[in-house]
């Protein structure tokens, strides 16, 4: 289902995926099966999204972002893809940012270019992720740091209180 007010230029949208109004998907992007791409999302050309991914409203996925299966991206999460951004100067290749299977990114999280969020990891709302996050860990803060662990079922199994 692609909403009539969405602009989807790619033919690579998996079966059962829903793309809502005012979303723009460029021609070379790839989106898997059974995803839910909410309203007002922008997906650039060199983006790959796996199966059963949820992308909430206000998210922009820039060139170089790779999202594996079963990932949740919260509203207004922000991704960067260039450490030295300058107007009208593009790098030859953007740094890859990878969200591994089953991870969750909270609302208003900022993820800098080149970071990998590990399998089933969870990033708390409002965090700024400046380095790789290992699998099954809970991170939050600015900059985000390890604050606990997450089980295979996605539930928090250990957490330290905020400082």
Automatic annotation (TrEMBL):
Task: Print the keywords alphabetically.
Answer: Acyltransferase, Isomerase, Repeat, Transferase
- Identify the Gene3D superfamilies for this entry: Hexapeptide repeat proteins
Report TM segments. Answer: none
Tell me one GO molecular function of this protein: acyltransferase activity
Q: Which Pfam families match?
A: Hexapep
Q: Which PANTHER family match?
A: ACETYLTRANSFERASE, ACYL-[ACYL-CARRIER-PROTEIN]--UDP-N-ACETYLGLUCOSAMINE O-ACYLTRANSFERASE
Q: Which family does it belong to?
A: Belongs to the transferase hexapeptide repeat family.
Record protein name field: dTDP-6-deoxy-3,4-keto-hexulose isomerase
């Amino acid at each position: 289902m692609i909403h009539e007010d969405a602009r989807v230029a790619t033919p690579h949208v998996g079966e059962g995926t829903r793309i809502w109004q005012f979303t723009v998907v460029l021609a070379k992007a790839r989106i898997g099966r059974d995803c839910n791409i909410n309203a007002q999302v922008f997906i650039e050309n060199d983006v790959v999204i796996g199966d059963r991914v949820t992308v909430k409203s206000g998210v922009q996925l820039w060139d170089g972002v790779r999202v594996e299966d079963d990932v949740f991206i919260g509203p207004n999460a922000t991704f960067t893809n260039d450490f030295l951004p300058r107007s009208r100067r593009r790098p030859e290749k953007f740094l890859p940012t990878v969200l591994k299977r089953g991870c969750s990114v909270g609302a208003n999280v900022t993820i800098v270019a080149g970071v990998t969020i590990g399998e089933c990891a969870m990033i708390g709302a409002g965090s700024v992720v400046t380095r790789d996050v290992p699998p099954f860990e809970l991170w939050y803060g600015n900059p985000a740091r390890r604050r606990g662990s997450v089980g295979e079922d996605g539930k928090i199994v250990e957490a330290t209180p905020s400082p």
